[in-house]
Input
Amino acid sequence: MRVWPVFLYSDLQSLGRAGQGRSLLGLPLGSELLVERLRRRVRAITQNPPMILSPVTATADYVTAMAAVCPDARIICKRDELSDALAGYELSDVLLVLDPRCFAVRDRELETLIRQFSAEQQIAHHLVAFETGIAGTKEHVDVDARGFVRSVHRYYEPTTWPFIAGVCASLVPVSTGALASGFIPTSLLELRQFLVARGVSSRDVTLEGRALDLTKAHGLLAATEQFVLRVAEERSAGQRSPTHPDW
Amino acid sequence: MRPDISSIVLTGTYPWANTTFDKLLPRPLMPVAHRPLISYALSWLRQGGIDRVAICANRETRALQSRLVHHVPSGMTLSYFEDPMPRGAAGCIRDAAMADDATTFVVADGNTIPIVDLRELVVNHRASGAAATVVVHSESRGSGNPGLQVPTGIYVFERRALETVPGRGFYDIKEHLIPRLRRAGEKVRTFSTRSAIPRVMNAQTYLAVCDFVVDHLVAAQEVPDGYTRMGDSLVHCQAYVAGDATVVGPVLIGPGAHIMSSATVVGPSSLGRDVTVASGALVSRSVVWRRSIIGERAVADRCILSDDTILDTDERAFRTVMAGSRASVPEAAAAAPRQTGMPVPAPAFRLSSGANRWLTSPPWARMWRRDAGLASISLF
Output
């Protein structure tokens, strides 16, 4: 089994004017770019070069910028290019597709996904982040057709909350032919649905740590803060640190 | 003033985890912008025309009685209700309501900052003829998931609804009372608010609520008594800010606080009475209660420092809750005027003819705080 990394494109439109025409992959995260961070994570799994799926409208500047930070990456902008690229893969190969929008805080989550996949290689696996709330519970007022309250439900996240917030990564066997037709998913949620529609069996693997929504300003800031705090902790290793998070 | 409407404020809390934060103080008494959290609910009720409030505090009754004296809005009569046995929210409300002759009861959570139009809520409730109204906030969710109508902890009950609650035993609003009313054919309606109701549930939400209130206080036209607006910050007239200190708003600086030379305070932050930020120290996005000392060159970022906390010289604290009365006294604390008996410059608050850097945060930062602060900050 060979693993081939694939990075999805995402723009920064949700940041308004500041994000227009900018790729999330090219966003600085601490002292490196997000694409470099993802590349580093993937290297712990495979040394194979990544594919970067980009929109047809990708500019030459974007392609140049991506090529500069990921010199070995194959930047795909057209359906035919994707089909051609996948034609060279074995059916026993697997695509490790990463969506930068749903960013796992911990670096080693992909290894868990790979471990799970190894046991069931004919099934697509998705690394999913569950929605989380404050104090682990959510409440919802259920209203009937006349607008009267029927009941108030209290969900407890570890037991009764079934909804995911996003998919960080997917392991998709090449044998599913999922991307070979030239289908370029805009998100892993879309890819997950696409696989279901094609009759491909899938399994969700829950993220052990947290995930951040990098399409939102507060997600980006939290990711940067997490990076800075980790660097600070590494630098002050051995020194007294009063940090003992209550949250 | 409407004699037919009364209010009941529930202050009971459940400590979800045995954290340092949960041990600091009863949640309704936690200071938010220099006022007990529960005082915001009381002010909201008073402004809505309600002058009688029963507080169901149970084991916290004495603590609330002693500390709320100075925070009861003018013209409001407070009574305290303590159940000898656990009664549940509906049981507590029923017991308090039966001691009052009002026909309509507004129920609020003492751990929230109510930002609903109370008069509109009551008018809407009465016009609907409902036995109860649940105030909800629509919460949109991503990934194609359906939105939620989230209860905010604010209800309006007619007396007849509360009379159905048994006089003994545990009785909850959501699990018992609302289903019972529905079975009885009574109408229970919702009233939607435009925004979420800030609620303190843990350290993270406490900081978010403080951010929210400080932000709104600083943005408001009216300046609280005794305070002066400096840039995006409100500084008490009895506070001292060194000429070369830097304050990046929104920051609330309380009476007797000392921001020493080359110290930096980054908002949203609030510094309570007699807090000292020593020379070269940095306090950012934090809430510091009374009499705490941030030592020389110490750093506190996204922290809650309770009364009498000392952060030692050069110490760094990130996302930390610190309880006070620590034994060690750092050099910086000893050097601070208040500690050594050195005279505090008088008047204590010094306008430094431009030497201070009172920096304002850009509008997008405020929008971000508003959007991110009240939701879960770092997660989806």
Remarks:
- Confidence is low (pLDDT under 50) at residues 240-247 of chain A.
- Residues 3-131+163-235 of chain A form a domain with the Spore Coat Polysaccharide Biosynthesis Protein SpsA; Chain A fold (CATH 3.90.550.10).
- The CA atoms of residues 111 and 154 of chain A lie 34 Å apart.
